[in-house]
Amino acid sequence: QSALTQPASVSGSPGQSITISCTGTSSDVGSYHLVSWYQHHPGKAPKLLIYEVTKRPSGVSNRFSGSKSGNTASLTISGLQAEDEADYFCCSYAGGSSLIFGGGTKVTVL
Amino acid sequence: QVQLQQWGAGLLKPSETLSLTCAVYGGSFSDDYWSWIRQPPGKGLEWIGGINHSGSTNFNPSLKSRVTISVDTSKRQFSLKVNFVIAADTAVYFCARARITTLGVFSRFDPWGQGTLVTVSS
After folding, report:
1. How many Cα atoms occupy the beta-carbon half-sphere of B64 within 13 Å?
2. Residues B46, B39: contact at Cβ < 8 Å?
3. Which residue among A32, A48, A101 sits closest to B44, beta carbon to beta carbon?
4. DSSP one-letter code for A89
5. Contacts with A11 (C-beta within 8 Å, 6 or more apart), sequence order
6. How high is the pLDDT of residue B101?
7. Are residues A108 and A85 in contact, defined by beta-carbon separation less than 8 angstroms?
8. C-alpha distances in angstroms, B94 versus A76, B40, B48, B63?
9. H or E segment at B99?
């Protein structure tokens, strides 16, 4: 079972919007509305940003939004801020008891 | 609000046993599924497996033969053991609560522990 494919890095200037893609297959992302996204500042606990493709937990900024088309899920960060500089991971349910993560994307705020 | 605190040995020799424990503070221990996830240096995350309060487990097939996950409901703790560790088991290990949908399938990990770096080196 291969990892979901994410770009290694994405960058943007403060105030801009960026989108991180997460590409899987018809056996995981394409089959289930169960993609989640996490923000990870190294040395800290990862933080849930988006679950079930589009849902945002209480307390998470509405600058973060999720979507999915076919086998690719996406996380959009609007109004990019310096504090958004971090690693971002996607995760998808893959049937049975299988879960699969993306390789991670490093977001740099220029 | 649920919080997780994890601990365990950080330096192991090849063939030794990795042992980590995660304590759950707040929330209902019995309602959720408790998981372990790891991140090798410079790589992405890998789900290891999980357990519920009654001891029912699920594992990543790639690790299942060497992994044991157990639960102590009286202490609100769950634990991970990985036997016969090798250098490739070097990673930051996280514990996390897995939330399940009403249909009984995985939805998300929230919250996470702070992570424990485990290094396997002779």
Report:
1. 8
2. yes
3. A101
4. E
5. A18, A107, A108, A109, A110
6. 85
7. yes
8. 25, 11, 10, 16
9. strand B91-100
Q: Which residues of A touch B (CB under 8 A)?
A: 1, 3, 6, 32, 34, 36, 38, 43-48, 51-52, 57, 89, 91, 93, 97-104
What is the rounded average pLDDT for all residues in chain B?
Answer: 94
- Residue A95 identity (one-letter amino acid): G
Task: Check A52 against B46: CB less than 8 A apart.
Answer: no
In terms of C-beta density within 10 A (0-12 exposed, 13-18 middle, 19 or more buried), how is residue B7 classed? Answer: middle
The two structure tokens encoding residue B38: 């790891």
Phi-psi category of B55—alpha, beta or left, where left has phi over 0 and alpha has psi -120 to 50?
Answer: left
Q: Identify the CA nearest to A20 among candidates A78, A83, A92.
A: A78
Q: Quick: pLDDT tens for A68-100.
A: 999 999 999 999 999 999 999 999 999 887 889
Is residue B107 over pLDDT 80? yes
Rounded (5°) CA angle A42-A47-A53: 125
What confidence score (pLDDT) does residue A67 get?
98
Under the banding of pLDDT at 50, 70 and 90, the label for residue A1 is: low
| Residue B118 reports pLDDT greater than 80 | yes
Query: Tokens 């410079």 appear where?
Result: B42
Q: Mean pLDDT, to the nearest integer, of A27-49?
A: 95
